[in-house]
Fold:
Amino acid sequence: MSFFGELYVRSTLPFLSAEITAREVAYLERCFTDLALAGPVVDLGCGHGRHAAPLNTSGVLAGRVVGLELDAYSLAHRLPGFPVVEGDLRALPFPSASWAGAYAWYSTLFAFSDAEHRVILREVARCLQPGAVLVFQTVPYERLLEQPSASFQRVLPDGSRLEEESHFEPATGRDHGRRRLITPEGRVLSGEYAIRYHPLPELVQRMEEAGLRVKWVHGGLEGEPLTSASTDLIMGAELRHG
Structure:
C-alpha cells in the first residue's frame, strides 16, 4: 500500500488541531498580503484542503486558491470551498507564468528522489509569474541530526492503533520511516516513506539551480529567525532576475 492516501489521511489528521491549522493559515495570509498579481495561488499537494478551504473562503486570498493533488483518497474526502486540479507535481498541468503564488506544507515537495525534486522545482518556477512567491515548509536538517531515530505507538480518537518508526541517514539526507495503522475493524494499513532534508546552504543552492531566489527563511509561524532550536524551516522564494 502507498504511504499516501487513506493511511496518511487517517493517521495524520488527529494530530492537526484546528488551532494549528488556524496559525498556519494566518502565516500564509501574511505571506500573500501584498499580492498584486492576477492569477491563482496554488496549494501544491493540497490533500483534503486543510489550508486551501479556509484560505479560499475568506481573507486576502478569498476566491484565488486552487488545490493541486494526485491522491484519489484525498480528492474524494476534500473539504468544500475551493477548486482542485488533479495532477502531478512533476508535470504541473498549468500554463507557464500563470501563477500569482504557490505554497506547500509538511515537506510535500521533498517526498521524492533528488532528480524528481529538481524537476518539481523547475516546474514550479515555470508556472510562477515574475514577482510571484513560493512558500514552503519543512523540518530543519539539524533537527533530524539531533534525533535521527524515533518510534511511537498511540491509540487515536477513533480507536485505531498507530505505530511508526523512522531513522534519518545524514549521508543521504533522507528520513526513512514505516507507518502502520490498525483500524477498529481490524484492517491493517501500512506504508513506507523517505523524505529528503537539506542543510540550509544546500537548500538555497537547490532553489538557485531551479531559477529561484530565496526571499526569506523563518524558523516558525511568527516569522522568527531560523536557529538550531527551530522546529520549522519555512522559506519564501521568487523567480531570480537576470
